[in-house]
Amino acid sequence: MEKEIRTPAELEAEAARFVASLSPREDATLVTLSGELGAGKTSFTKAVARALGVKEIVNSPTFVLEKIYLLGGEASTFKRLVHIDAYRLEKGGDLAPLGFDELLRDPGNLILLEWPEKVADALPSPAARLSFAVEHDDSRVLTYG
Protein backbone atom coordinates (compact mmCIF):
# COMPACT_ATOMS: atom_id res chain seq x y z
CA MET A 1 0.00 0.00 0.00
CA GLU A 2 1.22 3.50 -0.82
CA LYS A 3 0.17 6.77 0.75
CA GLU A 4 1.10 10.18 -0.63
CA ILE A 5 1.75 12.76 2.07
CA ARG A 6 1.76 16.42 1.08
CA THR A 7 1.38 18.30 4.37
CA PRO A 8 2.39 18.00 8.02
CA ALA A 9 -1.29 17.50 8.88
CA GLU A 10 -1.47 14.53 6.51
CA LEU A 11 1.65 13.08 8.13
CA GLU A 12 0.08 13.45 11.59
CA ALA A 13 -3.12 11.77 10.41
CA GLU A 14 -1.25 8.90 8.77
CA ALA A 15 0.92 8.34 11.85
CA ALA A 16 -2.18 8.27 14.08
CA ARG A 17 -3.89 5.81 11.71
CA PHE A 18 -0.78 3.62 11.69
CA VAL A 19 -0.47 3.63 15.49
CA ALA A 20 -4.13 2.69 15.84
CA SER A 21 -3.49 -0.36 13.64
CA LEU A 22 -0.79 -1.72 15.97
CA SER A 23 -1.18 -3.90 19.01
CA PRO A 24 1.41 -5.56 21.23
CA ARG A 25 2.71 -8.98 20.24
CA GLU A 26 4.37 -11.78 22.19
CA ASP A 27 7.60 -9.85 21.86
CA ALA A 28 8.37 -6.25 20.92
CA THR A 29 6.65 -4.72 17.93
CA LEU A 30 9.43 -3.82 15.51
CA VAL A 31 8.75 -1.32 12.72
CA THR A 32 11.50 -0.54 10.23
CA LEU A 33 11.74 2.84 8.50
CA SER A 34 13.73 3.06 5.26
CA GLY A 35 14.49 5.98 2.96
CA GLU A 36 17.16 8.44 2.03
CA LEU A 37 18.31 11.27 4.29
CA GLY A 38 15.50 13.81 4.64
CA ALA A 39 12.82 11.45 3.36
CA GLY A 40 10.68 11.75 6.50
CA LYS A 41 11.61 8.85 8.77
CA THR A 42 12.22 10.99 11.85
CA SER A 43 9.26 13.26 11.07
CA PHE A 44 7.05 10.17 10.97
CA THR A 45 8.53 8.95 14.26
CA LYS A 46 7.78 12.34 15.84
CA ALA A 47 4.18 12.10 14.62
CA VAL A 48 3.89 8.55 15.98
CA ALA A 49 5.22 9.78 19.34
CA ARG A 50 2.61 12.56 19.44
CA ALA A 51 -0.12 10.05 18.54
CA LEU A 52 1.06 7.94 21.49
CA GLY A 53 0.90 10.91 23.85
CA VAL A 54 4.63 11.63 24.17
CA LYS A 55 5.05 15.16 25.52
CA GLU A 56 8.84 15.28 25.30
CA ILE A 57 10.64 16.75 22.31
CA VAL A 58 11.46 13.89 19.95
CA ASN A 59 14.67 14.36 17.99
CA SER A 60 16.68 12.07 15.78
CA PRO A 61 18.91 9.79 17.86
CA THR A 62 21.60 9.81 15.13
CA PHE A 63 24.43 10.51 17.57
CA VAL A 64 23.09 8.76 20.68
CA LEU A 65 21.67 5.92 18.53
CA GLU A 66 18.66 5.25 20.76
CA LYS A 67 16.01 7.13 22.70
CA ILE A 68 13.31 5.56 24.84
CA TYR A 69 10.07 7.33 25.70
CA LEU A 70 7.77 6.07 28.43
CA LEU A 71 4.16 5.78 27.38
CA GLY A 72 1.05 5.60 29.44
CA GLY A 73 -2.55 6.51 29.63
CA GLU A 74 -5.21 5.72 27.09
CA ALA A 75 -3.17 6.83 24.07
CA SER A 76 -1.15 3.62 23.90
CA THR A 77 -1.30 -0.08 24.58
CA PHE A 78 2.53 -0.04 24.60
CA LYS A 79 4.71 0.86 27.59
CA ARG A 80 7.66 2.34 25.70
CA LEU A 81 8.45 3.87 22.33
CA VAL A 82 12.03 2.95 21.39
CA HIS A 83 13.50 5.06 18.57
CA ILE A 84 16.73 3.72 17.08
CA ASP A 85 18.73 5.34 14.29
CA ALA A 86 21.16 2.80 12.80
CA TYR A 87 22.67 5.21 10.25
CA ARG A 88 26.07 5.26 11.95
CA LEU A 89 26.19 1.50 12.54
CA GLU A 90 28.04 -0.93 10.31
CA LYS A 91 26.50 -4.29 11.21
CA GLY A 92 23.81 -5.89 13.33
CA GLY A 93 26.22 -6.69 16.14
CA ASP A 94 26.55 -2.96 16.73
CA LEU A 95 23.04 -3.03 18.23
CA ALA A 96 24.19 -5.20 21.17
CA PRO A 97 25.50 -2.32 23.32
CA LEU A 98 22.01 -0.80 23.11
CA GLY A 99 20.53 -3.88 24.76
CA PHE A 100 18.68 -4.60 21.51
CA ASP A 101 18.05 -8.29 22.24
CA GLU A 102 16.46 -7.40 25.58
CA LEU A 103 14.37 -4.65 23.96
CA LEU A 104 13.09 -7.18 21.41
CA ARG A 105 11.90 -9.56 24.14
CA ASP A 106 9.62 -7.02 25.84
CA PRO A 107 6.07 -6.98 24.43
CA GLY A 108 5.60 -3.51 25.93
CA ASN A 109 8.06 -2.03 23.44
CA LEU A 110 7.17 -0.41 20.15
CA ILE A 111 10.51 -0.12 18.34
CA LEU A 112 10.87 2.24 15.38
CA LEU A 113 14.20 1.54 13.71
CA GLU A 114 15.59 3.86 11.03
CA TRP A 115 18.11 2.56 8.48
CA PRO A 116 17.34 -1.16 8.96
CA GLU A 117 19.49 -2.10 5.95
CA LYS A 118 22.58 -1.21 8.02
CA VAL A 119 21.78 -3.86 10.65
CA ALA A 120 19.63 -6.30 8.68
CA ASP A 121 21.66 -9.31 9.84
CA ALA A 122 20.44 -8.78 13.44
CA LEU A 123 16.77 -8.06 12.78
CA PRO A 124 13.86 -10.42 13.19
CA SER A 125 10.97 -10.08 10.78
CA PRO A 126 9.36 -6.70 11.56
CA ALA A 127 5.68 -6.17 12.23
CA ALA A 128 5.77 -3.51 9.51
CA ARG A 129 8.24 -2.24 6.93
CA LEU A 130 7.77 1.40 5.97
CA SER A 131 9.66 3.09 3.17
CA PHE A 132 9.75 6.84 2.52
CA ALA A 133 10.53 8.54 -0.80
CA VAL A 134 10.70 12.22 -1.67
CA GLU A 135 8.82 13.27 -4.80
CA HIS A 136 9.76 16.15 -7.13
CA ASP A 137 7.08 18.38 -5.58
CA ASP A 138 8.52 17.73 -2.07
CA SER A 139 5.62 15.48 -1.13
CA ARG A 140 6.48 12.09 0.36
CA VAL A 141 5.34 8.65 -0.66
CA LEU A 142 5.02 6.26 2.24
CA THR A 143 5.02 2.61 1.18
CA TYR A 144 3.93 -0.15 3.52
CA GLY A 145 5.56 -3.46 2.73
User: Residue share in helices?
Assistant: 10-25%
Calculate the terminal CA-CA distance, rounded to whole Å: 7 Å
Largest sheet entry: 7 strands, mixed
Count of discrete structural domains: 1
> Briefly, what CATH class?
Alpha Beta
Taking strands numbered 1, 2, ... along the chain, how are they ordered across the largest sheet? 1-7-6-2-5-4-3
Which features does this protein show?
Rossmann fold; alpha/beta; 7-stranded mixed beta sheet; 145 residues
Describe this structure in words.
By secondary structure, the protein is of the alpha/beta class. It has a single domain (2-144), classed as Rossmann fold (3-Layer(aba) Sandwich), CATH 3.40.50.300. It is 21% helix and 27% strand. It has 3 helices and 7 strands; from the N terminus they run βαβαββαβββ. The chain has a 7-stranded mixed beta sheet. Strand 6 (128-134) and strand 7 form a beta hairpin. Helix 1 crosses helix 2. 32% of the residues are buried. The model has no long low-confidence stretch (mean pLDDT 93).
